[in-house]
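Sharing a chain and its predicted structure for anyone who wants a worked example. Both blocks are below, sequence first, tokens second.
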Amino acid sequence: MSLPAGSTIGIIGGGQLGRMLAMAAARLGYRTVVLEPQPDCPAAQVANRQIAAA
């Protein structure tokens, strides 16, 4: 299965691993949305969008 460039990838958890995944996805041309209860999480700094919810 392949996702076309420009697709959006959802990431559950906004810690350091989520940040690294969001950065790698951006380099490949994907948009990212992070689901994380903390609004100031590391992944929120590089993701296209963050949903702050538990």
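Comments welcome. The domain at 8-51 is CATH 3.40.50.20 (Rossmann fold).
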